[in-house]
Amino acid sequence: MGRLSNISGYKAAKAFEKAGWQKMGQVGSHLVMVKTGINVNLSIPQHKELSVGTLRALIRNSGLTVDELLKLL
Q1: What architecture does CATH give domain 9-72?
Q2: pTM surpassing 0.85?
Q3: Fewest 10 Å CB contacts: which of 6, 26, 39, 47?
Q4: Phi, psi of 19, rounded to the nearest 5 degrees
Q5: Nearest Cα to 42, choosing from 71, 13, 15?
Q6: How many CA atoms lie within 13 Å of 57's alpha carbon, on the beta-carbon side?
Q7: What secondary structure does DSSP assign to 3-71, as a single string?
Q8: Kind of pairing, strands 22-27 and 42-45?
Q9: Domain boundaries in the chain?
Q10: Model confidence over 5-28: pLDDT tens digits?
Q11: Which backbone phi and psi does 52 adopt, to 5 degrees?
């Protein structure tokens, strides 16, 4: 299992795009992403650094594993 570090919201969004998530829009400083077939929206803060807990929650909601996301980065 890989080790998560603080990454930017921009890099996280790019990694989720590679996994098939699409940008739906932006609400304030949060980018909303959707994926067909999944009833969850990802709300990714567009900050310089995402905390590890926030990133881990996004990974869990997306259905990916930590290692899969690290490969997409």
Answers
A1: 2-Layer Sandwich (3.30)
A2: yes
A3: 39
A4: -85, 5
A5: 13
A6: 10
A7: ------HHHHHHHHHHTT-EEEEEETTEEEEE-TT----EEEE--S---HHHHHHHHHHHT--HHHHHH
A8: unpaired
A9: 9-72
A10: 889 999 999 999 999 999 999 989
A11: -60, -35
